[in-house]
Design goal:
- The protein is an alpha/beta fold and about 375 residues long.
- The chain folds into 2 domains: about 170 residues, Acetylglutamate kinase-like (Carbamate kinase, 3-Layer(aba) Sandwich), CATH 3.40.1160; about 130 residues, 2-Layer Sandwich (VC0802-like).
- About 35% of the residues lie in helices and about 30% in strands.
- α2 packs antiparallel against α3 and α5 packs parallel to α7.
- It starts with a strand and ends with a helix.
Length: about 375
């Protein structure tokens, strides 16, 4: 019997009614003759509320204790969903990250998956059960509970799919796949049927939130067939595969993000040393002048870090954003290169074989995303 791994995000599980809907979908897949493993996130804004509670009782809560606290959210979801599936007459069991064999590094709040030993999951599937897994978490070699950072449930699903040699991994959210632009900014954005791993990875790093970059990277490395689909309805969503699809228009999508911080310094050595354990989105140097782009989502203690960097003599721009156009050899395409050189004039920017990115004040991002989508995608359709 083929194995399918599904992941449902917080918006798909915001309340018990949505949980019941997801439970029925899962049971239908099982009864269609598929072994089903389901990875779940915390319900709705549970993780944010738990973080707020922690900061009410501690100014700088321990990362270990935060991991102990935040993993509760996914365990609540997995238990409730398992109860609902049982009520529908289907054998089911819920497992934590550690119970299903996700072994991680010892870095609390940003642990890396080192290995997946899915023996317990395989045993439960062999008994005919649906397996519900708490995403976002694992256990370190010290037997400590760890979390994988934002997007960790996507990564859990893809890593399990690879370890189980699953037929596919389906990531469900409130949008039907990946669009050519953020529909909140670009109402005319359209669905992309197929993307390569490299295209999806670029979009994820550039701000598209449908699939997390770490999950896409794991899928690319292991060859997992990846689908982004809507929880509601029966749309086809977006398939992510290894090969580059053929397209008449070299431009695939436009994306942006507004949660960046730019750090600049002419004294790179001490700044580089301080940032050695901080996730860096981009880094470049021109002569003696070095710059680093940091992401607030990856660094919860960003405000304190900014103050420390200012004290070290660095320049810090806290309201930085980026606009990325994903496409093939954009600098070689006459129309795309002309539009982008004009739009990005005066901003730090960089082009490679799959994308062209500019860094600019966060307040300007949305307007530029809409402008470029209109010029490069809508007018080229």
């Amino acid at each position: 019997m083929p194995t399918l791994v599904q992941k449902y995000g917080g918006s798909s599980l915001a309340d018990t009614e949505k949980l019941k809907y997801v439970a029925r979908r899962i049971v239908d897949r099982k009864r269609a003759g598929v072994d089903v493993v389901v990875v779940v996130s915390a319900m709705g804004d549970t993780t944010d509320r738990l973080l707020a509670m922690a900061r009410e009782v501690a100014k700088d809560p321990s990362r270990r204790e935060l991991d102990m606290l935040l993993t509760v959210g996914e365990r609540i979801t997995m238990a409730l969903l398992s109860m609902m599936i049982h009520e529908l007459g289907q054998e089911v069991i819920s497992l934590t990250g550690s119970q299903c064999g996700i072994l991680t590094s010892d870095s609390h709040s940003r642990a890396r998956i080192m290995e997946v030993r899915p023996f317990r999951v395989q045993d439960e599937l062999a008994k005919g059960r649906i397996v519900i897994v708490a995403g976002y978490q694992g256990t370190s070699y010290k037997r400590e509970i760890t979390t994988l950072g934002r997007g960790g449930s996507d990564l859990t699903a893809v890593a399990l799919a690879a370890a189980l040699n699953a037929e596919a991994c389906e990531i469900y959210s409130d949008v039907d796949g990946v669009l050519t632009g953020d529909p909140r900014i670009v109402p005319s954005a359209t669905q992309i049927e197929t993307l390569s791993y490299d295209e999806m990875l670029a979009l994820s790093k550039g701000g598209a939130r449908v699939l997390h970059a770490d999950a896409v990277e794991w899928a690319r490395r292991t060859g997992v067939a990846l689908y982004a689909r809507s929880t509601q309805g029966e749309g086809t969503g977006t398939m992510v595969r290894r090969d580059l699809p053929e397209r008449p228009n070299p431009v695939v999508a436009v994306t942006g993000r507004t949660d960046l911080v730019r750090v600049s310094s002419t004294n790179a050595a001490p700044i580089s040393a301080r940032l050695s354990d901080v996730p860096i989105a981009e880094q470049w140097s021109h002569g003696e002048h070095s710059q680093w782009i940091l992401c607030r989502e990856d660094t919860p203690e960003m405000d304190a870090l900014c103050e420390e960097l200012l004290g070290m003599g660095a320049s810090v721009e806290r309201e930085t954003g980026s606009v990325m156009v994903v496409g093939h050899a954009l600098s070689d395409d006459p129309q795309a290169s002309t539009v982008l050189r004009t739009a990005f004039e005066g901003y730090s920017n960089h082009a490679n074989v799959l994308s062209w990115t500019a860094w600019l004040p966060a307040a300007l991002v949305d307007d530029l995303v809409g402008q470029l989508h209109a010029q490069l995608i809508e007018h080229s359709a």
